[in-house]
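Hey all, quick one. A colleague (J.T.) asked me to put the magnesium ion job into the tracker so the inputs and the structure tokens live in one place instead of scattered across chat threads. No bug as far as I know, just bookkeeping. Sequence used:
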Amino acid sequence: MKTVVVVDLDSTLFDTSPRHHLVPTENRHANESWHPYSQAHVDDVLIEGMATLVRLLQDQVRIYVLSGRMDIAYDTTRQQLTEHGIFADRLRLRADNELGSVAEWKIGVLREWMAEDDTKIALMLDDFPDLCAQVTAELGIPTVTPMLPVHYNTTMPGL
Ligand SMILES: [Mg+2]
């Protein structure tokens, strides 16, 4: 039995705040509009705690990276992960022709993986709480959502 942990990248393993200014304001539903934002991932800052967790897990289980980052950034993403000592057994990014919400797309990919023989997805790490709730409710996969300092300060001001 292949035990798998699914890991998101943006705002889960990497702090994307250096490129937030590149989030498209027009044609947001066209995947190509997200190319500049995706390609700027090379400026992201590693979230060391999450990276340490994944490095510990990868010795025990298979790591499948599932990210809405666009496929145009595939090679640089592979390189980025390797540089940080993270060795994903699979890296699945979003192709230009894969439309719809990121949540719908991720759930579709998870269903494909779950249908493979001998595969058990034991856990998913992802920063998007609505997606995590849906993944647990629909697919029975437990999830962990990192609460990063940048989010914590935003959602709980004054602490
Ligand atoms: Mg994310």
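Adding what we noticed when we looked at it: The beta strands are 2-7, 14-15, 45-46, 62-70, 90-94, 119-125, 143-144. The mean pLDDT is 91.
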